[in-house]
Amino acid sequence: DAGITQSPRHKVTETGTPVTLRCHQTENHRYMYWYRQDPGHGLRLIHYSYGVKDTDKGEVSDGYSVSRSKTEDFLLTLESATSSQTSVYFCAISGVGGQGPQGPQHFGDGTRLSIL
Amino acid sequence: GDSVTQMEGPVTLSEEAFLTINCTYTATGYPSPFWYVQYPGEGLQLLLKATKADDKGSNKGFEATYRKETTSFHLEKGSVQVSDSAVYFCALGHTGGFKTIFGAGTRLFVKA
After folding, report:
1. For the residues A58-81, what does the mean pLDDT come to?
2. Residues with Cβ < 8 Å from B95, sequence gap 6 or more?
3. B80-109 pLDDT, tens per residue?
4. Among B61, B50, B59, B60, which Cα is nearest to B23's?
5. What is the pLDDT of residue A2?
6. Is A95 helix (H, G, I), strand (E, B) or coil?
7. Which of A74, A75, A87, A97 is most exposed, with minimal Cβ within 10 Å?
8. What residue of A is the nearest CA neighbor of B6?
9. Pairing between β-strand B86-94 and β-strand B31-38 as defined by DSSP bridges
10. What average pLDDT score do residues B33-44 get?
11. How deeply is B24 buried, as exposed, middle or buried, from its count of CB atoms within 10 A (0-12, 13-18, 19+)?
């Protein structure tokens, strides 16, 4: 168990409001990722982090920002939520057991976000 | 860039049938292939992996062999159970990169 907790697990909010999702890990793994999963699109990378304060964009980063001020926490923020951001969001980590980022990823249980 | 192609679903099988889900990839360098499984309402879980050419990964009766000459990593199981109903993702990690490339996923339904 890689000790990944996502919060909240479910959220309903309105268009235009800011939303922050949290991913917390207990084992100080270096690499963390945020994905969104939508029917017909599979899993798409939003942002990733390769260390404290070191982040980079994935393939669908528009409208999202991230922060990593501590090894254990990776936050995903929707500055002004839109209905197109309704999705299931997954956090993942890699680098377990000293492997590099190309090693297997371990996923949280997801956050189901609905924007009305 | 690197890409992963897996067979489209859904795949519907009867219990005890043989399962194959095809996965092929394009990549430079030394990729590491994986299979993940996602049960309803959960995140992806690593099912099996391979680390070098001709390696066979196996777990829970599932197997996949990393074939570098055909750039493939097909998933097989000799006798599926209803509890194997899930979505299966082929994926590729890559030395020197931070990202894992995921296939689109294949939904498997197993009927009793």
Report:
1. 96
2. A100, A102, B29, B30, B31, B32
3. 999 999 999 999 987 667 888 999 999 999
4. B50
5. 63
6. coil
7. A97
8. A42
9. antiparallel
10. 94
11. middle
Cβ contact A107–B104 (<8 Å)? no
**Cα B40 → chain centroid:** 17
Distance from the A29 Cα atom to the nearest Cα atom in chain B, whole angstroms: 13
Q: What is the mean pLDDT of residues B43-57?
A: 92
| Residue that wins the pLDDT comparison between B96 and A29 | A29
Q: Considering CB atoms only, which of A43, A48, A109 is closest to B102?
A: A43
* Beta pairing class for B56-59 and B45-49: unpaired
Distance CA A86, CA A114 (A): 5
Answer whether B97 touches A (CB < 8 Å).
yes
A66: which residues sit within 8 A by CB, 6+ positions away? A34, A46, A47, A49, A55, A74, A75, A76, A77
Residue type, B6: Q
Percent residues over pLDDT 90 in chain A: 80
Amino acid at A77: T
Is the per-residue pLDDT at B20 higher than 90?
Answer: yes
Q: What is the pLDDT of residue A1?
A: 58
Q: Which of B41, B46, B97 is nearest residue A102 as measured by Cβ atoms? A: B97
d(CA A91, CA A84): 19
DSSP-assigned states of every residue in B9-73: S-EEEETT--EEE-EEEE-SS-EEEEEEEE-TTS--EEEEE--STT-EEEETTEEEE-BTTTTB-
In contact, A113 and B103? CB cutoff 8 Å = no
